[in-house]
Design a protein that fits this description.
The protein is an alpha/beta fold. The chain folds into 2 domains: about 180 residues, Rossmann fold, CATH 3.40.50.1970; about 200 residues, Up-down Bundle (Dehydroquinate synthase-like, alpha domain), CATH 1.20.1090.10. About 50% of the residues lie in helices and about 20% in strands. It is built from 13 helices and 11 strands. The strands form 3 sheets. A 7-stranded mixed sheet has the order 1-2-9-6-5-3-4, sandwiched between helices. A two-stranded antiparallel ribbon has the order 7-8. Strand 1 and strand 2 form a beta hairpin. Helix 3 packs across helix 4, helix 6 packs antiparallel against helix 11 and helix 10 runs antiparallel to helix 11. The longest helix has 21 residues. The protein binds nicotinamide-adenine-dinucleotide and glycine. Glycine binds next to loops.
Length: about 375
């Protein structure tokens, strides 16, 4: 097992992330260690699909540690991460009579984690919760850092809070049952973290993907554990330095750099009404676009761009995007909700492993259009 500590300014001032094959069996004792002695009830929130795979084992581990466990299953899918489901989740917490000392356990991908985490953040003005992420994306990114939210009609994650989990239990075995597209999405987010984090993390991720193509898929348990731990440690370091994503920060260690690839990704998702791309897949395209812009602005050299592009290609097949209208995507980019003071901030690369935040006004329309076209051509050649 690997262990990573996430430091926070909130109380308690840190929490542990336990990572390894079979970590689910430790859920009870991890929860016991992370919660107060007064915690008696656990409300497990998941969906039918994940609960069928890992629910019994999770509930058993919690019961063995002495907790009363009740569970509630939300509908599966991004479109259910909304206020209506939140209301139902809160009704469940009330009917299960959870007290302030009790806790929620989120079992599933980022959708279950974000929704259950937000329910825990607002129920009785905030109770403890434990994340048990079962997708690669949630393991390397969503479960760590305390961002919890639901979507609104006007856009994704518009209603939310910062509410850190008391512990995160990552059983790397759970990704064996993940559909291939979910793996691709998770690898794209992993490449993203390497690209902005450090050359070492990027190389570790890239080498894993290269070797995985040669070996049996889903194999190589030990190096997967180490890789996920390194990804989590990177995310923890960014969160510790900029917990609430300070809007005034634009430096290369600000939390904002985690949005590398996200400006185009959000536009692609919105332009296709969230039906075509898994979020991580759209980030795959977004990184190629940001890479092309970085190269055209003279920040990233050709070899850096080629390496980034090869890493994205190794994440898996991306849905097609070359049939989408450039004008529509450019229009959606200009509406990005992450803008500050009315202006977009692009996360670009100076080199692999170092991000640079650039004001959108420094990127003219022609350059953006050319970058978009070049990135889509690159992606279709990669197929
Ligand atoms: P998801 O939660 O929808 O999971 C993807 C699919 O995989 C679902 O159908 C789910 O039921 C299924 N699944 C989950 N675990 C499985 C397993 N082990 N085996 C088989 N199937 C399994 O999607 P996701 O990609 O995990 O998360 C995306 C969400 O995460 C988005 O809502 C996004 O906004 C959010 N997110 C949050 C943060 C954050 O910091 N809070 C960061 C990144 C993404
Ligand atoms: N996934 C981006 C963040 O946690 O800030």
């Amino acid at each position: 097992m690997q262990r990573v500590t996430v430091k926070t300014a909130a109380r308690p001032s840190s929490y542990k992330v336990i990572i390894g094959a079979g970590a689910l069996s430790l859920l009870g004792e991890v929860a016991q260690g992370a919660l107060t002695v007064h915690a008696r009830r656990i409300a497990l929130i998941s969906n039918r699909k994940v609960f069928k795979l890992y629910g019994a084992q999770s509930a058993e581990a919690l019961r063995t540690a002495g907790f009363d466990v009740a569970h509630w299953l939300m509908n599966d899918g991004e479109r259910f991460k909304n206020l209506r489901t939140l209301k139902r989740a809160l009704a469940f917490l009330m009917s299960a009579r959870l007290e302030r000392s009790d806790a929620v356990v989120a079992l599933g991908g980022g959708v279950a984690g974000d929704l259950a985490g937000f329910a825990a953040a607002v129920y009785l003005r905030g109770i403890a919760f434990v994340q048990v992420p079962t997708t690669l994306l949630a393991q390397v990114d969503a479960s760590v850092g305390g961002k919890v939210a639901v979507n609104a009609d006007a856009g994704k994650n518009l209603i939310g809070a910062f509410h850190h989990p008391r512990a995160v239990v990552i059983d790397t075995d759970t990704i064996r049952t993940l559909p291939l597209r979910e793996l691709t999405a998770g690898w794209c987010e992993s490449v993203k973290q390497g690209a902005v984090g450090s050359k070492e993390l990027f190389d570790m991720t890239y080498n894993f993907l290269r070797r995985e193509a040669e070996d049996e898929k889903h194999a190589r348990v030990e190096s997967l554990e180490r890789l996920i731990a390194a990804q989590v440690a990177f995310k923890a370091s960014i969160v510790a330095g900029d917990e609430r994503e300070d809007v005034t920060r634009t430096d290369s260690r600000s939390r904002r750099i985690l949005n590398f690839g996200h400006t185009t990704a959000h536009a692609l998702e919105a332009a296709t009404r969230y039906r075509r791309f898994r979020h991580g897949e759209a980030v795959g395209y977004g990184m190629l676009v940001a890479g092309e812009i970085s190269k055209r602005l003279g920040l990233l050299d050709r070899s850096g761009l080629e390496l980034l592009s090869d890493a994205v290609a190794r994440c898996g097949r991306l849905p097609r995007a070359d049939d989408l209208s450039e004008d529509m995507i450019l229009g959606a980019i200009s509406l990005d909700k992450k803008s500050v003071g009315g202006h977009l901030k692009w996360v670009l690369l100076e080199r692999i492993g170092r991000a640079r935040v650039v004001d959108g006004r420094e990127i003219d329309k022609k350059l953006l259009r050319a970058s978009l076209r070049a990135a889509f051509e690159r992606a279709s050649k990669n197929k």
